[in-house]
Structures are given as structure tokens and as C-alpha cells.
Design goal:
There is one protein chain. The chain has 234 residues and is mainly alpha-helical. It folds into two domains: 158 residues, Helix Hairpins (Orthogonal Bundle), CATH 1.10.287.1490; 62 residues, no CATH class. Helices cover 77% and strands 6% of the residues. The protein has a four-stranded mixed sheet. Helix 1 runs antiparallel to helix 4 and helix 2 runs antiparallel to helix 3.
């Protein structure tokens, strides 16, 4: 595999980036507390936003029903006004009473939906205000934190740049396979043989497979499918 040296270096770059990213995400207590609060507030904001969308949709449906119920009541009222006989008038009054009950039955959930929307909008505003404050405090403290880890930040930038260079030099097929293995194998796509075992899954390698690996330079592990190579040949 001609791409093996590039893949080995690319794996090393990813390993180093993971170490730096882990260190840079290990916030001190005050920063960690703000980070946790921001995540909680963001989740709440999403929940409130979804609640608003759902309730507004319900209100729109109920409003259509209310308009229809109001028209039915108005028609029933006109019928009452136009009644000229006692029996006709009595039936019209009964129909009007029924239409009024139907409208009231729709009007109640309309009011409830309107109140619910008002409450959610207030909650949304409160969350947004606190989220803005927390984010501002977090950004200020994180700026100080990153300044204290200037060397790691610089190293991260250099490694990210090198990663892009290596990725551009790889054939698309190998790059895609490498990316898939990173996701599927906990960030370790390329590993060396370690005392006759796969350096990733620790599976003992068969003697014929080891011989084939020494000849080929690299193979896919029979167990975990990682890109496996013999460090002695590098």
C-alpha cells in the first residue's frame, strides 16, 4: 500500500489532536459550570421552541374551528329572528343554544392555547436572556483559559493544517475508508502489530497472515478491519 506512510502519519496527527482537544476541553470548575449551564439552556430553548411551534399550529386549527362555530351561531341567531311561528321559534332557540355550547367548547381551548403561547414566549425570552449572559461569561473565561494554553492552541492549528495536507494527498477511496474506521473504531484506524497481535483489537494474528503482512507491508485486520502494518518495516 503506497499510501501507508501517509495513513500512519495521518493517524498520528489524529491521535495528537485528540490529546490536545481533550486537554482544551478539560475546563476549570467555573468554566465547566457555565458550559454545562449553556448546554442545559440550549436544550430548554429547543424544547420551548418546539412547544411554541406545536401550540401555534394547534391554535391555528382551533381558530378555524372557532370561526366556523361563530358562523353557525350567527346563522342560528338569524333563524331565531326570522321565526314567525311558536314551534319554529322554539326549535330555533334550541338550535341556537346548541350552537352557542359548541362555540364555547371550541373557545375554551383557544384561550388555553393563547395563554400557553404567552407563557412559552415569556419563558423563551427569559431563557434567551440568561443564555446570552452565560455565553458572554463563558467566552470571556474561555479566552483566558485558551491564552493560558497558548502552546496547545498553536499546536492544534498546526496539526489541523497538516491533517488537511495529508488528506488532500490521499486517494479518495483510502480517505473514505480511513474516515469510516475512525468513526467505527474509536478514533484508531491505523495500528501496528504488537507482539503478534493487532494493536487495535488485540486479536492474536495467524502465522500465515503475519507472513502475508510482512510481504505486503499492510493489510486489513481479519477481526476489526483496521489498517494493520508491521512497525519493523517502517
Amino acid at each position: 500500500m503506497n499510501e501507508l506512510p501517509v495513513l500512519i502519519e495521518l493517524q498520528a496527527v489524529h491521535d495528537n489532536l485528540r490529546v490536545i482537544e481533550r486537554d482544551l476541553s478539560a475546563f476549570p470548575p467555573d468554566l465547566a459550570s457555565l458550559d454545562a449551564e449553556i448546554k442545559i439552556l440550549t436544550r430548554k430553548a429547543d424544547e420551548v421552541a418546539k412547544g411554541l411551534v406545536g401550540t401555534r399550529g394547534l391554535l391555528a386549527t382551533l381558530s378555524v374551528e372557532l370561526v366556523s362555530a361563530q358562523k353557525a351561531e350567527d346563522q342560528a341567531r338569524e333563524t331565531v329572528k326570522g321565526a314567525t311561528q311558536k314551534a319554529q321559534y322554539t326549535l330555533a332557540i334550541r338550535d341556537l343554544d346548541e350552537r352557542q355550547r359548541q362555540k364555547a367548547a371550541v373557545a375554551r381551548p383557544v384561550k388555553e392555547a393563547e395563554h400557553r403561547i404567552e407563557a412559552l414566549e415569556r419563558q423563551q425570552g427569559e431563557i434567551a436572556a440568561r443564555l446570552g449572559e452565560a455565553q458572554k461569561q463563558f467566552d470571556e473565561l474561555k479566552g483566558i483559559f485558551l491564552a493560558e494554553h497558548e502552546n496547545q492552541v498553536a499546536g492544534q492549528i498546526q496539526l489541523q493544517s497538516r491533517r488537511l495536507e495529508l488528506e488532500k494527498s490521499l486517494d479518495a477511496t483510502y480517505l473514505r475508508k480511513f474516515g469510516q474506521l475512525l468513526q467505527q473504531r474509536n478514533g484508531r484506524a491505523v495500528v501496528g502489530v504488537d507482539n503478534g497481535a493487532c494493536g487495535g483489537c488485540r486479536t492474536r494474528l495467524r502465522t500465515p497472515f503475519v507472513a502475508q503482512l510482512r510481504e505486503a507491508g499492510s493489510l486489513f485486520c481479519e477481526s476489526c478491519q483496521r489498517i494493520l502494518y508491521d512497525p519493523a518495516r517502517q
